Amino acid sequence: MQRQALVMVGPSGRTLGADSPSGLLAFLHEDGDKLQHPEGKLKTGRIQEKCRGPCIPASNCSQPCAQPFHGEIGFTCHQNKWQKSTETCTSLSVETLFKQDFNSASRLPLAASSIPVHVLDFRAPEPVESVAQGIRRNCPIDYACILDVVKSSEATSGNIAFIVELLRNISTDLSDNVTQDKMKSYSEVANHILDTAAISNWAFIPDKNTSSDLLQSVNLFARQLRLHNESENLVDELFIQAKGLRINHNTSEEKFNFSASMNSTTEGILGMIEIPRQELWNLPPNASQAISIAFPTLGTILKEVHLQNVSLPRPVNGLILSVILPEGLKQVLFTFEKINKSRSARAQCVGWHSRKRRWDENACETTLEIMNRVKCLCNYTNMVMSFSILMSPKSIDNKVLDYITCIGLSISIFSLILCLIVEAAVWSRVVMTEVSYIRHVCIVNIAVSLLIANVWFIINSNFHKKAQDSNWCVALTFFSHFFYLSLFFWMFFQALLIIYGILVVFHRMMKSRMMAIGFAVGYGCPLVIAGTTVAVTVPEKGYMRPDACWLNWDSTKALLAFAVPALVIVAVNLVVVLVVAVNTQRPSIGSSKSQDLAIIMRISKNVAILTPLLGLTWGFGVATLLEGTSLIFHIIFALLNAFQGFFILLFGTIMDHKIRDALKMRMSSLKGRSRAAENASLSPTNGSKLMNR
């Protein structure tokens, strides 16, 4: 009789079967021969030796795993050393899962010698070709036949990947008639690879979707479970817990309470799920059920695949809580206890989108954050069934920044409006020459751009979070980007005007041509940059930040379309300041110490005027983009930028002696007109008319 080969594709992609070395082990070793380490524990999938070749930066190599594991370990050269990057070492396969039943069925008892030969059946049982087939044949009631093999296996990266695939197959092929016993066995298998001792090995699994597949498989399997009692504690493992209850439209507000530990020694992290009463009213009269699952360690291994190269990580800072609810329930309240209880650990409520394999900030809204607890209101859908809170290590949660921004923007807007009123009042008296005309055109457009940008900023900060995916958020981001860029480019054109006024002496450009260049630079360049940014990033959904209507940084680096032009203009303006300083400190013949002092004063005045007007204060913004930046840099940046409108009014308008003189003349003219009007009203002719009346 020809022996049929067992076929199983392992995590490394290699076909494994009875013809492979690992498959032969299942046939050749007796029941007591476990291939154990001398200490009694399964030996780790180590290699015989590391890569022998020279370690060239970014080069890769691989070595086979030590027996009895099959697979390989990949290495990458980093800092002149070979470092492990991937691992597929596994000791599990379909035949090893069911080999105990195979051995017990194939061995003959001692009394077999007295049994007639025609009664004995020496044929081996039919081979198991799939997990579903093996479970249906050996343990269809509770899946218990696979527990011992899985729980005794070492949690190598290859074995973890195999177990996740095992759970996924069970969820898809054996999800009919799920009982509480099956749910317990299923959770015991998942608990084995969610142990804190196995967490470090998840990083070496080649398929980065493995952790997401595990979460989705558990949720899918739990969805098929049918409850028989009003309330049940379904699973109570150390690293996975599950509870269920029966509900209907007459049920009062229901809660699930969890307390799960990150390991066996730490205190439990609390989590609570509440189904609001108004949501339960949407249920039909007949009874339904709700199931909840808590994962204390899954947050440390759950990977957002498309964000794997982002410099700013988004660590999970609480339990991951999954819910399986009946149709009609849309919103759920969650209460999370923070794992990291630092004051700077700002929380953000999120839901895991199973299709996109990432955290979705729009799925939840933070309703309350007090001390170490966060309350979230989340939208439940078939794609978003698991929820948690994220922590940003760079988040700056300081009310000082809010106060500075609020007060500064108010003063800035008032100052800019006052600046425009002053310019309108003295316009005819200060634009006597072409250069002065263009200079005041620059000031007016700088004030207008910053004023509109500040207004858009206020609208953005109050824009409702749920509407951030709409076209309104795209429009808000575009106009904020455009007008902030316009501010910088008008500053840049003013710097060009200063250079033109200093260096070009014998040739003067026509006013109309200078105006055309000014508007092309001030509004044309920002329009091109902002429009290109929208066209490139919106199709990839990487134009805006997930939590605000502003340019994205994490995925597409769209913020560079603002930061790079701004920083380049700041650098150019620094050069302009130096040119002005050099040209204004050239002493004439016969200069004295008093003249030198006057030159120093003029240099100080030029620098004092140019610094805020040309955006040098925005250089502090570079520091705020760096990881681990001190709070003082954020405060200085917020202070200087929030009050920039006041700086424009002070240095660009009030400190200009020509504008002050024009204002005095304007006021004198108004006073003269008022006195003339009074004198005219008190003249004898008017007096006689009044007497006649």
UniProtKB/TrEMBL annotation:
Membrane-topology descriptor: Multi-pass membrane protein
InterPro entries per the UniProt record, alphabetical: Adhesion_GPCR, GAIN_B, GAIN_dom_sf, GPCR_2-like_7TM, GPCR_2_Ig-hepta-like_rcpt, GPCR_2_secretin-like, GPS
Primary subcellular site in the record, as a coarse category: membrane
Residue ranges crossing the lipid bilayer per the database entry: 400-425, 437-459, 479-505, 517-538, 558-582, 603-626, 632-655
GAIN-B domain: residues covered: 248-397
UniProt KW Oxidoreductase keyword: no
Keywords attached to this entry: Disulfide bond, Glycoprotein, Membrane, Receptor, Signal, Transmembrane, Transmembrane helix
Cited Gene3D superfamilies: 2.60.220.50, Rhodopsin 7-helix transmembrane proteins (1.20.1070.10)
Limits of the G-protein coupled receptors family 2 profile domain: 401-656
Any Gene Ontology CC annotation: membrane
Subcellular location: Membrane
MF terms in GO: G protein-coupled receptor activity
Family: Belongs to the G-protein coupled receptor 2 family. Adhesion G-protein coupled receptor (ADGR) subfamily.
Protein name (record): Adhesion G protein-coupled receptor F4 isoform X1
